[in-house]
From TrEMBL:
It comes from Bombus impatiens. Keywords: Ribonucleoprotein, Ribosomal protein. The keyword Ion transport does not apply. This is Large ribosomal subunit protein uL10m. GO terms for cellular component: ribosome.
């Protein structure tokens, strides 16, 4: 009995020891088993390089080859005549870069421009390039792309145009044409805001303040002196003849 009681009174003691796992697990690139690796290698797509074996001279020759110009169809020719009519009969032409946006937002911009007697138009790049080719609008060619739109107006009103375009966060003015002169963004806004009559008055006032009246007197001094002397000589001769 005593040995059994001694065994029952002694508590069960558990021995445990903490160990740290020092290996790092790469979650993005886990270890792949051999079968899965073979399957991935077999299913990996491959593409044939079309320029393999070509020399640098061949690349230069191919880059110099001019592609045949695409001829406009009957419908495109009608649209091209309409575009040329817009270019020739508009005093202000705004060139816009339009990012991807909903057509409903574009319609809102069209309505706002139409209320100010401006017309928002978009045409294909091949039609625009055909219209401006060999004309004084040819300088607009680098700006023409599938993201380019135009605003035509019979009046010069760049201030209102800038306000409307600024409300749309995905449209930007790149430049334009004012009375047949192609201008960049800064000059387009600068000369569009300028009033010719006010500028002329300012120029006259500046010349007057800079001594323009004094310069005029100096230039005409000898002429007026000569005229007065001739008048005096003429009057003296007539009086002497009358006395005789």
């Amino acid at each position: 009995m005593l040995p059994n009681l001694a065994l029952q009174l002694t508590p069960n003691q558990l021995l445990y020891q903490q160990k740290r796992y020092r290996g790092k697990i790469n979650i993005k690139k886990p270890k792949i088993y051999f079968k899965k690796r073979v399957l991935n290698d077999l299913l990996t797509p491959f593409f044939v390089n079309p320029n393999k074996g070509k020399t640098l001279e061949q690349f230069c020759i191919e880059s110099q080859e001019v592609q045949a110009e695409k001829q406009l169809g009957p419908y495109d020719q009608i649209i091209a005549r309409e575009v040329r009519n817009w270019f020739d009969n508009s005093k202000m032409i705004g060139c816009l870069h339009v990012n991807s946006m909903k057509q409903l937002d574009v319609f809102d911009v069209q309505v706002a421009l139409f209320r100010e007697n401006m017309h928002y138009k978009y045409y294909g790049p091949h039609i625009i390039n055909h219209v401006i080719k060999n004309s004084h609008y040819n300088a607009l060619a680098p700006l023409v792309s599938k993201y380019t739109s135009f605003v035509f107006s019979p009046e010069i009103n760049t201030i209102t145009l800038q306000k409307i375009i600024k409300k749309s966060k995905k449209m930007f003015i790149m430049g334009g044409v004012l009375e047949g002169q192609i201008l960049n963004y800064d000059d387009f806004l600068k000369y569009g805001e300028m009033d010719i009559i006010t500028a002329q008055l300012g120029l006259v006032q500046t010349l007057q303040n800079a001594g323009g009246l004094n310069l005029n007197r100096q230039l005409t001094h000898h002429q007026t002196t000569l005229v007065t002397r001739l008048e005096q000589i003429g009057t003296n001769e007539t009086t002497s003849n009358d006395k005789k």
